[in-house]
Amino acid sequence: MTMPSAKTIAFSIDSLKLGGAERTLLRWAVWCRDAGWTAVVITRHGPERDAYPMPIGVLRCQEPRLPNALERLGWWAFPARLLALRSVLRSHSVDVCVGVTVLPAVKVLLACCGLRIRCLVSERNYPPAKPPALPWRWLRRISYPWADLHLVQTTTTGLWLKSHCGAQHQLLMPNPVVWPLPEHDPVLAPDSLIPGGAQMLLAAGTKAFQKGFDHLMSVFAELALQWPNLYLVVLGLSDQLYQGRNQQAWLRQLLGGHQDAQARLLMPGPVGNMNSWYARADLFLLPSRYEGFPNVLLEAMAAGCPCIASDCLTGPADLICDGENGRLLPAGASPHRWVLEIDALLQDQPQCLRFAQKAVAVRERFSESRLRGEFLDALEGLTRE
């Protein structure tokens, strides 16, 4: 669908660090660019934090830094941040602005007060699972009813936002799967780390606690004793501090003195060739405590990788029908339950093949072409009102 070329849409997010929200935002920006919009991505942090290349034809700008005297005021400088964002939006003559994740969404809604800008909000996790600080919860409750449209990833999230935040106008917009998956740097071949003939369990994510990777350590310690040629690869974790913790060191500490298992636990960090890793894996594991809509699970299924996931709130149950196209284990299932399920599938290749053959149906269910049309139709409806 072609949109009026005079329209400008802005997407506001904290940074373009590695993550599902950031990738989805860039896909939306590309859809808008291709439909004739001027697309602008506004971040608080600069390009030094970017994990993804900026698409050609999409503008990028950073919120103006406040003077040092204001920066030192912390929360009290918030009104100045709103004015700075408002200035950016006005300078680009923005018609529609999308706030992605809670803090940018609140800032967008407040900064656009009194301006003729349509505002959209996109929460990226199930809100009760990761509540923001109390002031942000207050501001969310006050500002979310002002949004022209809430883009919700699951019906569960939509119901919560409607009940607790007055989010009346909603569009169900799960993440699209882009197939084949695009490749970017850094590229790391699985065969450079995994010996030929070895079996491999794969997990991926940037937040170890949310993804339940600590849970996997006790699971792998037991499996490593039973399967001497089994490797566990965890992709996406930086070796830098995250919220004051080195996540890789934390996981190795949890694995403890299992020297053989330590040697077969590999954490190479972020990679840009996920297709190759999904293709190499025997099983993909997602033991998350909570999700919004798990991109990595969607991608693994699209790649035809047999999957086992935690039935956490929210997202996995929207993708996996237990026993049909993968396995869903109860949220909080014991490590021993995970060991039994993984062991059973590693010994049952015909079942793995059946799961893989049915899993690839997500390519159509969550196709970019279908979701792109719904997204652009919603924008057109807003700009016509």
What key attributes describe this structure?
7-stranded parallel β-sheet, alpha/beta, Rossmann fold, 17 helices, 2 domains, 385 residues
Describe this structure in words.
The protein is of the alpha/beta class and 385 residues long. The chain folds into 2 domains: 8-176 and 367-384, 3-Layer(aba) Sandwich (Rossmann fold), CATH 3.40.50.2000; 190-365, Glycogen Phosphorylase B (Rossmann fold). It has helices at residues 20-34, 68-71, 78-91, 102-111, 134-143, 155-165, 208-211, 213-226, 247-255, 259-263, 274-280, 295-302, 316-319, 335-346, 349-359, 362-365, 368-384; strands at 8-13, 38-43, 59-62, 96-100, 118-122, 149-152, 170-172, 199-204, 230-235, 241-242, 245-246, 265-269, 283-286, 307-311, 327-330. Strands 3-2-1-4-5-6-7 form a 7-stranded parallel β-sheet. Strand 10 (241-242) and strand 11 form a beta hairpin. The two termini are 18 Å apart.
